[in-house]
Amino acid sequence: MAEHDPSWLDEAGRRSVSEAVAVAEAQSAGEIVTILAERSDHYGDVALVWSALVAFAALTVTALWPDFYLSKLSLISGGWNAEWTASHAFAIAAAVATIKFAAMWLLQLWPPLKFLLVPGPVKTARVHERAVTAFRIGAERRTSGRTGILIYLSMREHRAEIVADEAIVSRVDPHVWGDAMAAMLAELKQGHVAEGMCAAVERVGTILAAHLPRDAQDINELPDRLIEL
Predict the structure, then answer these.
(1) Could you tell me if 45 and 53 are in contact, meaning their C-beta atoms sit under 8 angstroms apart?
(2) Which of 1, 12, 95, 133 yields a CA-CA distance of 20 to 30 A from 40?
(3) All residues at 6 or more sequence positions from 63 whose CB lies less than 8 Å from its CB, including other chains
(4) Which residue ranges make up each domain of the chain?
(5) Which tens digit of pLDDT belongs to each residue from 34-63?
């Protein structure tokens, strides 16, 4: 499991998110689940693709300008002339490609570079997939009225998702959640993670109260506490 950045949320921040959920749920039949994730994927496949592309580029350069590498080998061998056979050329190209592949792979062990190289659409798709999976595990069909809703924030990717259960989807236009996302984003841009999640919870609670008002017999079916992954 990835380590959490202690600057993202302290205990007071976690408590404020949980309290915001309790307040929002007091006004509606909705059950809000909040998740803060370090990241939504390891992107090992993306790192592999970049390493392979760099290795392929190295092979191409070696094929187009072989004299550069052969001159370096001549220096290493003391300047003695040598007959370079096809097998020698292949070995040189393979060695260069292997070194480039390994170097690119090692560079991507530094998270900032690794996440910088992940294409935006890939991040969006992985975050959405992880959010849907988390929703299915933690909220979907776990309430008697199918009123669960997930607010999911993935820190490394700088992306968030809102996923709702059947009763909410049938009553609320998905575009309505844009207000909650905008409220969260405004706080996150200032580095206020807890405030951002609380703002999203508040907006979601307002929307749920309008479409799914709290019933007198309503009980709290899902925990209010923030889940950190």
Answers:
(1) no
(2) 12
(3) 93
(4) 11-41+119-228, 44-116
(5) 999 999 999 999 999 999 999 988 888 777
Q: Which residues contact 211 (CB under 8 A, 6 or more apart)?
A: 28, 168, 171, 172
Per the CB < 8 A criterion, the answer to whether 229 and 38 are in contact is yes
Q: What is the CATH number of domain 11-41+119-228?
A: 3.10.310.50
Q: pTM (2 decimals)?
A: 0.79
Asked if residue 35 lies in contact with residue 229, where contact means CB atoms within 8 angstroms, the answer is: yes
Confidence of residue 151 (pLDDT cuts 50, 70, 90): very high
What whole-number distance in Å separates Cα of residue 204 and Cα of residue 27? Answer: 11
Tens digits of residue pLDDT in 95-146: 888 999 999 999 999 999 999 999 999 999 999 999 999 888 877 667 777 8
User: Could you identify the residue written with the tokens 């506490």?
Assistant: 225
CA distances from 34 to 9, 103, 137, 214 (A): 13, 39, 13, 20
